[in-house]
Design brief:
Blueprint: H1 3-9, H2 12-29, H3 32-48, H4 52-63, H5 73-89, H6 93-98, H7 107-123, H8 131-145, H9 149-169, H10 173-188
């Protein structure tokens, strides 16, 4: 999927073209998971160009896909990540509060939603409301530590970021900066 490269390089028009082709090919092959993966990247590319209406059209299309369970990684990740991307990239903090992980989502996927909700509450000035989602992030991380070090680390990064935004919203600026630096350092150290 060349869009992985285009995304890393910020070549959004190329990413869009690649993802449209990948989605079409996956649909022709009947590969729902790959079609959703392309739709997720397509959503992100549209958002980076401010093409919100096109991104908004993809999210409900993906949500209507019911042929795969949320425990299937490609499906679960896409249907959870796309609404998160839409809300976060538009700084729509009230929309983040309405997000819910798809029933049956794996911990690493549910963590994305809890991260968005935590950050959203902090950004809208209600950091105390983030407590539940911060606890859920910690639970996801703890669950993954026993089975999947990579995703445990990724979830830990999300948790550090969310805690940084909460600390910032509560006026603990130095702690927020320290937490965000720790998250960035951890992220820099993984593939």
């Amino acid at each position: 999927m060349p869009s992985h490269i285009f995304t890393r390089l910020g070549l959004w028009e190329d990413s869009i073209a690649s993802n449209l082709a990948a989605r079409r090919a996956a649909q022709e092959e009947g590969d729902v998971g790959e079609a959703l993966h392309a739709m997720d990247y397509l959503t992100y590319a549209y958002l980076q160009l401010g093409r919100f209406a096109e991104a908004e059209a993809i999210v409900p299309e993906a949500a209507r896909t019911t042929s795969l369970p949320a425990a299937d990684f490609k499906f679960g990740y896409a249907v959870n990540a796309m609404p998160v991307r839409l809300a976060m990239e538009r700084a729509d903090w009230s929309a983040t509060a309405a997000l819910q992980p798809r029933a049956g989502s794996t911990p690493q996927v549910a963590a994305i939603v809890h991260w968005a909700r935590s950050v959203g509450y902090a950004r809208e000035g209600n950091p105390k409301k983030a407590a539940y989602d911060l606890a859920q992030l910690a639970q996801c991380r703890d669950t993954l530590q026993a089975t999947n070090e990579y995703w445990a680390t990724q979830t830990s990064i999300l948790e550090q970021q969310a805690r940084a935004w909460v600390a910032f919203a509560e006026g603990r600026r130095e702690q927020a900066i320290a937490l965000m630096r720790a998250a960035a350092d951890t992220e820099d150290a993984v593939e």
